[in-house]
Amino acid sequence: MTQAPAPIIRAFFDQPTNTISYLVSDPVTRRAGVIDPVLDFDQRDGTVDVRSVEAILAAAKGDKLAIEWVLETHAHADHLSGAPYIKFRTGARIGIGEHIKDVQRIFRPVFNAEDLRTDGSDFDRLFADGETFGIGELVVEVLHTPGHTPADLSYKIGDAVFVGDTLFMPDYGTARADFPGGDAGQLYRSIQRLLRLPDETRLFMCHDYKAPGRDEYAWETTVRDEREHNVHLRGGVTEEAFVAMRQSRDATLSAPTLLLPSIQVNIRAGRFPKAESNGVHYLQLPVRPRAGAERAVIS
To answer: Of 192, 196, 179, 181, whose CA–CA distance to 238 is shortest?
Structure first.
């Protein structure tokens, strides 16, 4: 049996959102996929740009690659997805985990999003745990790794695994699990699944924030390094201890800057709500007064 080729991986770092997107290609067929692309969005004035996506498209063109998949590891809460623009430019299909339906059901009432379908049909493909598909001759294995959200996936391609927000670099730790539908116990079990992969398996992060004492951004590590050096996991931490740590830490974290615009766009596969009669797209901003401040919101 012929061994599948090793993927060629190019990383694209978006500093405003600390996100790493990936262009993954098959050297034999020149077919490619893009993982977690970023749409440039400035919420100060509501402007949208495609410079980050264009950088990926230019790299693909320079390498004579045909992009056939855009793969989301989950519905991100810290950046808007550039998937629809890549689909528009290349005809690529947009894929995400089948549990995106759970995330859509959670957030539909939050935004009173009456137009939102909760069957995942905004996406072209919903992946189930354990299934495989191809990018050219590359074989992609789908690993359901929930905890950060119910729908998180990791994509295993050869000796490389794209872990989304499940893990960060060893000196930074692990993902938060306090978003609606998140579960620190599930996150622990998902991480342990990843850490059972062979020691030299390469792990590619979706974010990096430069841990204290580190001068450069980084996004590639190994299973061995995560198991032995991750600041939230080393020493064989138990699930109970991990959950207690995660819940305590999450209680101190602020909401991501782009949480509200990101979620309502990304659960639609990167689609904005339909334009209103003036041709402008609007995003919802739910207003929730804190306890004791209810009279500050007067209709």
So the answer is: 192
Question: What pTM value is reported for the model?
Answer: 0.95
Neighbours of 211 (CB within 10 A): 14
E-assigned strand segments in the chain = 8-14, 19-25, 31-35, 38-42, 47-49, 66-71, 80-81, 93-97, 125-127, 132-135, 138-144, 153-157, 160-162, 202-204, 220-222
* Dist. CA 223–CA 197, nearest whole Å: 7
Could you give the domains of the chain? 8-271 (3.60.15.10)
* Per-residue model confidence as pLDDT tens digits over 178-236: 999 999 999 999 999 999 999 999 999 999 999 999 999 999 999 999 999 999 998 88
Q: Which residues of 178-195 are buried (b: 16+ CB within 10 A; e: fewer)?
A: bbebbbbebbbebbeebb
C-alpha span between 202 and 224 (Å, rounded): 9
Dist CA 284 CA 264 (whole Å): 8
| pLDDT tens, position by position, 89-143 | 999 999 999 999 999 999 999 999 999 999 999 999 999 999 999 999 999 999 9
One-letter amino acid of 115: D
